[in-house]
Amino acid sequence: MAELDELDAQPEPLPDLDTFPDAPPAPAVPAEPSAPSEAPPLPEGADESEDGLTLGSTPRGRAANAAMLALARAARSFNLYDAQNEAIRKFLVVLQQKTREALDGFGALRLSVRPFELISEGEPVYLERDREKSLAFRLYRDGVRRLEIDPRVGWDELLRLLEILSVRTAGTAGVEEDTVTLLRKTRFYNLRFSVVDGFLPDEEFPEDVAREEVKGRRVLDRAVMPPDDWDLPLPPLDAPVGVVFRAPPATVRAAIAREVAPDTLADAGMRLATGLLRAIEDPTDPASVEELLPYLLELRDYLLITEDLDQLGHMAAMLHRSIVNTVDDQPLHAAVFKQPDVIRQAMAVAALRGGDNALEEHLFAPHPTISVPVALSMLADRLERGAGPKDTPVLALVELLRRYAREAPELVLEVLNSGSPAVIVALLPVLEQSLPEHRAPVALSLANHADKDVQREALRLLETLPLGPALVPTLQPLLRSRNPEVRTRAASLVGRIGDDTIFRSLVQQIEARAGHDLGADEAVAMGEAMARMAPSASQAKFVEWIRPKGWLARFMDTASRREKLWVAAGGLGLLPGDEPEQLLKAIAGYGDDELRTFAISVASRRRRGARHG
Amino acid sequence: MDEISQAQAALGRTAALTRVGEDPELRRNVREEGEHFIRLFNGLLRMTRVHDLENRAFEQPSRDLSAMIGRLMDRLGPVHLVAVEDQVYINDIRIPMDRRWEGRTLDSELRRHNVGGVTFTAVPSDHDIRQLVGCFASAPDEEAPRTALMGQVIQRGINGVQLTGIYRFRTSDEAVRQRVAAEPAAERVMGVVEELWSAIAENRLVNPLPARRLVSEVLANPEGLSAEGLLAEAPAATPNGAHAWRVCLVSLLLGRVAGLDEAALQDLGLCALFHDAGYAYREGAVPASGEDPGHPGYPPPFERHTTAGARMLLHQKGFSEAKVRRALAALEHHRDFGIAEGAVVRERPFLFARLIRIAEDYDNFTHRAEVPGHDRPGMSPAEALARMCHGAGRAYDPILLQLLVNVLGRFPPGTLLRLADGRVVMSVSLVRGPDSFDRPLTRVLKTASGAEPGEPIFVDLAQDGRVAGVIR
Hints:
The complex is a heterodimer of chains A (613) and B (472).
Chain A: H1 2-8, E1 47-49, E2 52-54, H2 59-80, H3 86-106, E3 109-113, E4 117-120, E5 123-127, H4 135-141, E6 144-149, H5 155-165, H6 179-185, E7 191-201, H7 209-219, H8 251-259, H9 265-281, H10 289-305, H11 309-321, H12 332-337, H13 340-352, H14 357-364, H15 368-384, H16 392-404, H17 409-418, H18 421-434, H19 439-447, H20 452-463, H21 472-475, H22 484-497, H23 500-513, H24 520-533, H25 535-546, H26 551-555, H27 559-572, H28 579-588, H29 593-611
Antiparallel strand pairs in A: 1-2, 3-4, 3-6, 4-5, 6-7
Chain B: H1 3-21, H2 24-47, H3 59-76, E1 79-84, E2 87-90, E3 93-94, H4 100-111, E4 117-120, H5 126-137, H6 145-155, E5 161-164, E6 167-171, H7 177-182, H8 185-201, H9 209-220, H10 227-231, H11 239-257, H12 262-274, H13 302-313, H14 321-332, E7 340-341, E8 344-345, H15 351-367, H16 381-390, H17 398-408, E9 416-419, E10 424-427, E11 441-446, E12 458-460, E13 467-470
Antiparallel strand pairs in B: 1-2, 1-4, 2-3, 4-5, 7-8, 9-10, 9-13, 10-11, 11-12
Helix pairs in contact in B: 2-3, 2-4, 2-5, 3-5, 8-11, 9-12, 11-12, 11-15, 12-14, 13-14, 14-15, 15-16
């Protein structure tokens, strides 16, 4: 206590009277000591940095100073930054490096803690005069008086110390624990400390002890007493049996300790909730839901923070089954879980893990008006941040929406109508599987979407649907899409439902575009569409393109003619009779290897088809 | 993930969990009001140097301080203010002072009168506050300043104020530690146990920290969990309080031999102290309102005191391991180990509940069981343990019960024995080894001739003497 005595000898600042603004002016406050700073003066040669002074007159002192500054910075940084912040990372790296340098270079760090200073081997190695920033003050204030760090200390132990100095004693966590109980509870092997652990009477001549004891007992008189028959009747007594010493198996202690390991808290919390819920459901027990609800909210938050989906699922299921309502007649499940933030947090964790059946059934499904929009916004958020359509969270969210879209279809349709292209593409399978009655109108609408991916996926969906000729006008603009794949698919669809009117328009389009941007796939699809819509007219048109009038035209090798032949080859594959066979032979003799190969394969396919009827 | 990223993740998680376990109300209500309280008190004391007590300048701050003590008492019950060096505590909660000299000023103002703390057991009126300040402003008596000050307080008609002596900090490496932990525990235990009960009963904020410190001291003291400790008269103002303390000691003893670490043992000790909290509940209580005098209610019957206890313990805000364990232990401490409900075998009770069940029944059998032919309740510890062993696997966890047997022995501390040579002795040791399991150290109560020995005589049955029978 020597250092405490020294500190107490410091002069006091003059107290002010600002507590009492209404008080008349105080002309002459009796003599009080003058007001110096509370902390010791700056040592000569010391440099002030953000988290303490650069100190040390010896290499050992300088190393210890660097380590303590690093510890102080790291401890304080948790008040300023999120734990994942890059700044925290840098502070931890420095802490690791500086403590190692100090310990490896100079051995154990033995620190005496003073209100603003840490002293090692008689040398100040840390000084920070700002109470808010001072590591020394924080230690001193919480009762630590000495701290010794052994060179064998590992990173794990340093982190546990940092945890106690920063996050676990920050704010108001001192209700249940203080630094003393935390340090004692934590199993440190290479850290030793001396702490203040209580008060002692400190009188040389104790006064009037007996009288005070009597007064003390009066204070302790209970206003409420237990009943006289507490714990009675006692359990029935059995006949005594022989009592012998039996050493339990060596594994018993470990098994017992495991029952109260930190990772069992969620289980204990759930058991408590289950037991109390049972009491509330018992009509003879006066337990009320209002008493339990705050605890359930705490338990829910704990499970969310620890990302314990199993227990969260159990909790949701338990409350889902419960018949208990709150005083405002709200189901207990809704009182605990029907909140967007809660559902969002649970869904985020579940999505990262690829989904969770229990949560979906017992937490998300009961509240679709929250779950569906939350899932939609999370899906949009993830895709906008660059997630791919096959990423686990995206797939999980889509699967979740697939299951529950029917509970809130209007929300899904709204996003399909106005969402970003990536979201729309991701949601089309949901539309396809869960909202079948909306497939055709939505897909047709999206087929004209400005985004080519959306167009393509919408057409893919349309291809699976039974469509009628009335929809052809909607598809026609797609034949002019800039995207060849869209044009190809649109042509296939048009071929399925088009008629003579469309046929003429399609031929005009082929003739206009041939030689410019008609790719092979698109040409074949257009030929097939022609053959389906008007077989006779198509064959006539194909003949015209294969055997054009005039010998000059026949031998001109233009790009336009070549692409028309691709169209014809595609269409001839679907036309009956012998003539198409001859026409395909003519195309094969055209002189273009690629086209010849294709024409031969079509002819071959036709023959196989004919043989198989 | 590298080492630093893992550290960041772990620290982030701890920070989040710490936030969940917090009770923000405590900070807002107790710490902030505590700081204001101390400033007001200091300010009033300083004002006596420039103003007469009748000056109107005292009116508002006196009213404020009176109201503040009232608010603190609503939450804490009796308000115990302790100044130690430059720190100030209210009911063992350290009050963070923005200006350190405030704490030191208070300490020096009180110290003049040899006073280290002030306890308010009733809300003083603003007039009382002025009078109390006047007492402190007076010159201290040279011989017995605190006694004189208390005399002034009584003379001025101030009720509900008590003064305590000066304190200093005690550090964990002080040599005096063991003596301190063994001796004054009685007084402190009584205060802590009774305050816990009162806080629960009056629906006030329960402050578990003093109880945790007490348990921590018992665990740190090599003699804290000894036969001597078990045999000592439990320091409590009521039978139920004494029961809570004894159950705590036996639970800790059992928990320690079961291999629980310090952290778990601290929580177990608190669970044991709180295990019967449910009896403080009052079913059917109706607060007075207008002309309706209300109804005080009645304590829950045995069957419901467990759920009542769990519910009351959950009033403490914040989700912490300690709170959950306390409530769960209270809820399940009477559940049998191996009972089956219909075809479904229920999960066995929570570990702390199983430990407390054994400790509680052992204590109740040895202190409350009616035994034919005995003038006072309580059967012999040896008989209680032997009968409990019959329930191993059914009522009690057989392994935990065996561990208790292994540590208490065939003749647990307190068992009265008749030796073959006619002497009457009492067992005063725990088991010292498997070989001396049924041969404890004993103290002679009566010699072979029936006389009580003039000075303590011990007989180590491991070396001498043979047990002829158990008297009690």
